[in-house]
Amino acid sequence: MIQYLFNRSIHPRISMLFISLIAIPMIIGIWAQCKVSSTYKKYSQTQSRSRISGKETAEIMLRQSGVYGIEIVPQKGTLCDHYDPTQKRLVLSDSNFYGSSLAAIGIAAHEAGHAIQDKVGYSALNLRMSLIPITNSACKILPFVIFGGFLFHMTGLIYLGILIYLILTVFQLVTLPVEFDASARAKNSIMELGIIDRSEYSGVKKTLDAAALTYVAAFIAALGNLLYLVGIARDR
What pTM was computed for the model? Predict the structure, then answer.
């Protein structure tokens, strides 16, 4: 449908752009989400030998890194885990907060990695935080741009769409090193601190690597939309 948002007469080259830049990234995104769900389900049912909970994992990592004053709280839901630098709050879904599975330990350690990034002033995290206000504004405007182009054939909106997707692409690009670095800190710390043993490392790694795929997929999708709209603009 998106290929008709700005012009109902689509050049064959644009149709190929739609397939390569929109449809394929969409399939990759669906695959990434399925990969995360299946991997998380598997390792959330695999208990660690240490029986250390996700909350305790985060506490140990933060303490060993000299990070204090972080509130660690549970939240109802699945995979709603995140770290909020503005509130100094580390949020874990109930199953990861109380649970001691390999998935719970890995995700809790990952979020603790973000808190450590905040403490040491990790530049990519700071840049990502500075981009959040403009990114949120772009996300709010995007539906009006899409429906304006589709319902009222306001073709001039394509350039605003390009600007919005440029913002989203930059944001997703900056997000990648932030997430990869947090996972690297998590993997290293839980081994060094003895939270898991070597035989359990694979489960934690697969959980974190699967989660990372979603960020890669989000970047590919944003870039694909950006390049697609640029292609349409060039053919006008």
Answer: 0.87
What are 207-232's pLDDT values in tens digits?
Answer: 999 999 999 999 999 999 998 888 88
Q: Among 111, 179, 192, 200, which one carries the catalytic annotation?
A: 111
Cα distance between residue 121 and residue 119, in whole Å: 6
Res 5: pLDDT: 44
Instruction: Tell me how far apart the alpha carbons of residues 226 and 231 are, in angstroms, rounded to a whole number.
Output: 9
pLDDT digits over 28-47, tens only? 999 999 999 999 999 999 99
Torsion, Cα of 165, 171, 177, 182 (10° steps): -130
Across 121-213, where does the E strand assignment appear? none
Is the Cα dihedral 100, 101, 102, 103 positive or negative? negative
- DSSP codes of every residue in 111-143: HHHHHHHHHHT-HHHHHHHHHHHHHHHHHHHHH
**pLDDT category, 7, cuts 50, 70, 90?**
very low
Strand arrangement of the beta sheet that strand 89-93 belongs to: 71-75, 89-93, 82-84
Structural domains counted in the chain: 1
Distance of alpha carbon 119 from alpha carbon 33, whole angstroms: 30
Host domain of residue 121: 2-234
Verify whether residue 192 is a known catalytic residue. no
Backbone angles phi, psi at 77, to 5 degrees: 130, 180
Report the alpha-carbon distance of residue 201 to residue 12 in Å, rounded: 49
Amino acid at 53: S
Q: What is the DSSP string of 53-75?
A: -HHHHHHHHHHHTT--S-EEEEE
